[in-house]
From TrEMBL:
Keywords: Lipid-binding, Signal, Transport
Lineage: Eukaryota, Viridiplantae, Streptophyta, Embryophyta, Tracheophyta
Name of the protein in its database record: Non-specific lipid-transfer protein
Pfam families per the UniProt record, alphabetical: Tryp_alpha_amyl
Taxonomy, superkingdom: Eukaryota
Keyword Glycoprotein included in the entry's annotation: no
InterPro entries reported in the protein's UniProt record: Bifun_inhib/LTP/seed_sf (IPR036312), Bifunc_inhib/LTP/seed_store (IPR016140), Plant_nsLTP (IPR000528)
Record function comment: Plant non-specific lipid-transfer proteins transfer phospholipids as well as galactolipids across membranes. May play a role in wax or cutin deposition in the cell walls of expanding epidermal cells and certain secretory tissues.
GO MF, one annotated term: lipid binding
GO BP, one annotated term: lipid transport
Domain Bifunctional inhibitor/plant lipid transfer protein/seed storage helical: residue ranges: 25-109
């Protein structure tokens, strides 16, 4: 019985910790790093790029998560003067993903649903 209580308590702590985790720019940047060639040179996004886009979508289930990820992508996009706006706006659809998070240095991230 005591073991079952400890296991239940441990599971509760794990769930609470996971619910409290916020997305960070390192996760977003790492996931989307394979997309830089596509975003700056055009062509087709690589499989690893699309995997990264899908990962960001999975990491952003809440509006706050999406807004935080948007701020990360906005800051990253501003570092690339050769970012192709069309490539950035088309990236999710080119990867077969639907997301409300735009990739642009001018996005108002507070408006992301």
């Amino acid at each position: 019985m005591k073991g079952a209580v400890l296991v239940s308590l441990f599971m509760l702590v794990v769930v609470v910790v996971q619910l409290g985790e916020a997305i960070n720019c390192g996760e977003v940047g790492g996931a989307l790093a394979p997309c830089v060639p596509y975003l700056t040179q055009g062509g087709d996004p690589s499989g690893s790029c699309c995997d990264g886009v899908k990962k960001v979508v999975q990491l952003t289930p809440t509006q706050q998560d999406r807004q935080d990820a948007c701020e990360c992508m906005k800051a990253a996009a501003a570092r690339y003067s050769n970012l192709k706006p069309d490539a950035a706006s088309n990236l999710p659809s080119r990867c077969g993903v639907t997301t409300a998070i735009p990739i642009s240095p001018t996005t108002n991230c507070k408006s992301v649903p």
